[in-house]
Specification:
This protein is about 85% helix and about 0% strand. It is built from five helices and no strands. The chain has a domain of about 110 residues. With about 160 residues, the protein is mainly α.
Length: about 160
């Protein structure tokens, strides 16, 4: 059993999950449980906002880990970025919930729209980098085949 857990831990560290998603994701999940407990004890609305925020942050790291282990997806990347914004937005809203005078204001909607646009812009940048990487690999393959007279991968 020790060999299996050691190989699993080694695989996680080698794949980049050791520091990128495992530890911050576990801390975020722990804080989600802490705020779930605090909300169940006091029923204060600002604890609910923090609970939702830490759930979104945990989901962000979970999706990042999933994309590292599996094939990356544009939809999952966008959801991950939206969850990252949702965490910050929940913290922003919780500042007004502590004073118990919460009303939805116009700048809340403006901030939500701006966060969504930033997430879409991040997706656009992410896709542009992936496409340029694909294009440079394709260009190198074509250049290599013109020098050698055969295509890469052809038998």
């Amino acid at each position: 059993m020790g060999g299996l857990s050691n190989s699993l831990a080694g695989g996680l560290v080698q794949s980049g999950l050791g520091g990128l998603a495992t530890i911050p994701g576990a801390v975020a999940l722990l804080l989600f449980f802490v705020f779930t407990y605090l909300y169940s004890q006091s029923r204060a609305d600002y604890f609910r906002a923090w609970q939702i925020g830490w759930a979104a942050y945990s989901l962000h790291y979970g999706l990042n880990a999933w994309m590292l282990l599996r094939r990356p997806s544009a939809v999952l990347f966008l959801i991950s970025q939206l969850m990252l914004f949702a965490m910050a937005f929940c913290v922003f809203l919780s500042t007004r919930l502590t004073r118990r005078e919460f009303r939805w204001r116009w700048y809340d909607a403006a901030l939500a729209a701006a966060g969504t646009l930033l997430a879409l812009g991040s997706l656009y940048q992410h896709m542009a980098v992936r496409l340029s990487s694909w294009g440079s690999r394709r260009y190198c393959s074509i250049r290599h085949s013109s020098f050698t007279g055969r295509r890469i991968g052809a038998s």
